[in-house]
């Protein structure tokens, strides 16, 4: 009993904060999903299942599918870019490791909104990228880079790439070099040793990194708003629009609930696979 | 027949000379030990043999073929790591099959060889377990199985028993030696533990400061060391400093002390080394006073203080002690039981 008491002393403040300021409001908002919208906004406390059937309206389903696609592409690109980056950082001399890690988190010192505006400057028809391309004579007309889905992916990727690199770095840094020597000793070429030893052992971190990137990407509404041209490109925008523009809180809550449910499933898969992989390690 | 020929191998790390011109010949089918304290260069030599390090100078020939430019993954040499370095994400069988899969052998053959070697190391029941689910001794047997299943020309063992407790260690030493007879692979074991080297190896090379001090079989190494380092490192010894003569050692403090002719030229500086069990407590060249007596069942250890000498002379007596602290005793030994060694 004493140990449980001790645990709560340590957990208490954080747990209390989360419960009062996050879980309760979230539960309140999500509970709106079973009620009806009032004629002039607001709520009518009469239970209905209508909000849930609206979810399957192709109009909204399309947005959800697009969101999953954009967040998925972002996650995949983050993995493809982040893995070599993390791997390269572990091979640096100790002093440069610190420099690289600081450089990696340096963008977080600036406001997210401002950094996203910077991408408008980069991608706009008269922006840096188009300037450079026309300047070098590679293109005659400025390209329409902004307000397209690739611009959204670029923005999300930029924002969340460090969340992929950091867990991968932590895992690769802990990797026992002797295992690679053992692989070489048993006849594995370096590429084979990587594929058969390093990569499988980093899988828990790969999954963690993917979840870290996918979750905030799919819920993000600032990047699609600014770089996607204000269309309701992603489910984050849709939720925001329901609450602030359409004044349809119940349906906004239902959409939010759908996203939360999706993410909970995803996190459960991650926790399950992490435990399975870790269980193999120290069972 | 010489399997492995190491000649004039040098390796330095910055200012530290890890190997200072090491030359060794290891015979086919031999159980060879590289013995030395930590930092003597034995691990560097092992890593050069495995291909994880390159020598600055010198050559390593395996059956006459130069290994220098052969990358680690192409060498017919396998290593049992000190930490065992088992793959935590693979089962016991998966670990053992790993090296065979790299040879692109057919699946049925891999299965058969894995099963055979598991049987041999007595772990057939544990094939599906993960390394983390095994005891230290079992892990070592997996590491060994993983190496011998490749049927290497040469098997390197890095401090094979350092991670095991004493009882398991003795079992594993015996087992390892039997196994070596059965499979007929040449074993090179690296260790800082003299008992381990003495009990298992056919021949031992003693390394110190990156150089070979002496290469000999265990009995010769114990009975006829050629250098002060070897005489001191292996077993216990009493040392006297002086100049070598035809019939022993000429010391400034004790005059002439008897010893058989060793590896030292007459007239040069030398040490006389005599084992505690060879010293008798009646009569002889020296006399002293008993400082301390401790009884260890089968043997008693007696420390005798001798004037003009900083360290007491150690004497082992069979059975119960026959002297008491404070007794004045003589110290003697037969000339053939003391050996002259180079400083």
Main attributes of the structure:
heterodimer; A: 283 residues; mainly alpha; MetI-like fold; two-stranded antiparallel ribbon; 12 helices; 2 strands; 1% strand; B: 343 residues; alpha+beta; Rossmann fold; OB fold (Dihydrolipoamide Acetyltransferase, E2P); six-stranded mixed sheet; five-stranded antiparallel sheet; elongated; ATP binding (chain B); ATP-binding (chain B); ABC transporter ATP-binding protein (chain B); nucleotide-binding (chain B)
Short description:
Chain B: InterPro entries: AAA+_ATPase, ABC_SmlMolc_Importer, ABC_transporter-like_ATP-bd, ABC_transporter-like_CS, Mo/tungstate-bd_C_term_dom, P-loop_NTPase, Transp-assoc_OB_typ2. The complex is a heterodimer of chains A (283) and B (343). Chain A is built from twelve helices and two strands; from the N terminus they run H-E-E-H-H-H-H-H-H-H-H-H-H-H.
Radius of gyration of chain B: 24 Å
Query: Helical stretch count of chain B?
Result: 8
Low-confidence stretches of chain A: none
Beta strands of chain A, count: 2
Count of folded domains of chain A: 1
Rg estimate of chain A, integer Å: 23 Å
| Structural classification of chain A | mainly alpha
CATH topology of the largest domain in chain B: Rossmann fold
The CATH level-2 architecture of the largest domain in chain B is identified as 3-Layer(aba) Sandwich
Which term fits the overall shape of chain A?
globular
Pfam families (chain B): ABC_tran (PF00005), TOBE_2 (PF08402)
Domain ABC transporter (chain B): 4-234
Keywords (chain B): ATP-binding, Nucleotide-binding, Transport
Protein name (chain B): ABC transporter ATP-binding protein
């Amino acid at each position: 009993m004493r140990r449980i008491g001790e645990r709560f002393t340590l957990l208490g403040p954080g747990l209390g904060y989360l419960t009062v300021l996050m879980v309760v409001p979230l539960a309140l908002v999500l509970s709106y999903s079973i009620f009806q919208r009032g004629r002039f906004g607001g709520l009518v406390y009469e239970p209905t299942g209508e909000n849930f059937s609206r979810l399957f309206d192709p109009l909204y389903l399309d947005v959800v599918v697009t969101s999953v696609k954009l967040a998925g592409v972002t996650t995949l690109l983050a993995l493809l870019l982040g893995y070599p980056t993390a791997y390269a950082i572990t091979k640096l001399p100790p002093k440069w490791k610190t420099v690289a890690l600081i450089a990696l988190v340096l963008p977080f010192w600036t406001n997210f909104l401002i950094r996203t505006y910077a991408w408008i400057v980069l991608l706009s028809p008269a922006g840096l990228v188009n300037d450079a391309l026309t300047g070098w004579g590679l293109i005659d007309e400025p390209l329409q880079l902004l307000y397209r889905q690739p611009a959204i992916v670029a923005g999300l990727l930029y924002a969340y790439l460090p969340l992929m690199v950091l867990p991968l770095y932590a895992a690769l840094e802990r990797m026992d070099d002797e295992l690679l020597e053992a692989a070489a000793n048993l006849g594995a070429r370096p590429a084979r040793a990587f594929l058969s030893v390093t990569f499988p052992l980093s899988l828990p971190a790969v999954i963690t990194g993917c979840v870290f990137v996918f979750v905030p990407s799919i819920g993000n509404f600032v990047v699609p708003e600014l770089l996607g041209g204000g269309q309701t490109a992603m489910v984050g925008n849709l939720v925001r629009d329901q609450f602030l523009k359409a004044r349809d809180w119940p349906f906004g809550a239902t959409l939010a609930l759908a996203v939360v449910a999706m993410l909970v499933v995803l996190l459960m898969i991650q926790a399950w696979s992490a435990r399975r992989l870790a269980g193999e390690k120290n069972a | 027949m010489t399997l492995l020929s190491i000649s004039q191998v040098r390796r330095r790390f910055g200012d530290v000379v890890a190997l200072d011109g090491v030359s060794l010949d290891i015979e086919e089918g031999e159980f060879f030990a590289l013995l030395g304290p930590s930092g003597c260069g034995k691990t560097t030599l092992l890593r050069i043999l495995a291909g994880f390090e390159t020598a600055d100078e010198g050559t390593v020939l395996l059956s006459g073929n130069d290994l220098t430019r052969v990358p680690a993954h192409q060498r017919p040499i396998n290593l049992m790591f000190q930490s065992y370095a088992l793959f935590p994400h693979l089962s016991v069988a998966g670990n053992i099959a790993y090296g065979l899969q790299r040879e692109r052998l057919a699946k049925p053959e891999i299965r058969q060889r894995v099963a055979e070697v598991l049987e041999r190391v007595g772990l057939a029941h544990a094939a599906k377990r993960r390394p983390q689910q095994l005891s230290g001794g079992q892990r070592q047997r997996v590491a060994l199985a993983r190496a011998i299943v490749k049927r290497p020309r040469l098997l390197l063992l890095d401090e094979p028993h350092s991670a095991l407790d004493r009882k398991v260690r003795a079992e594993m030493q015996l087992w390892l030696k039997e196994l070596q007879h059965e499979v007929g692979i040449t074993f090179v074991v690296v260790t800082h533990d003299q008992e381990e080297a003495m009990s298992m190896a056919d021949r031992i090379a003693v390394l110190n400061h990156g150089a070979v001090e002496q290469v000999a079989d265990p009995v010769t190494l114990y009975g006829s060391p050629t250098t002060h380092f070897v005489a001191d490192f292996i077993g216990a010894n009493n040392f006297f400093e002086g100049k070598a003569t035809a019939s022993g050692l000429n010391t400034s403090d004790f005059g002439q002390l008897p010893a058989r002719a060793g590896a030292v030229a007459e007239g040069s500086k030398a040490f006389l080394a005599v084992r505690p069990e060879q010293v008798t407590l009646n009569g002889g060249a020296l006399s002293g006073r008993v400082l301390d007596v401790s009884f260890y069942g089968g043997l008693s250890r007696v420390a005798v203080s001798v004037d003009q000498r900083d360290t007491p002379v150690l004497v082992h007596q069979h059975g119960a002690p026959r002297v008491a602290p404070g007794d004045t005793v003589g110290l003697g030994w037969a000339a053939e039981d003391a050996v002259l060694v180079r400083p």
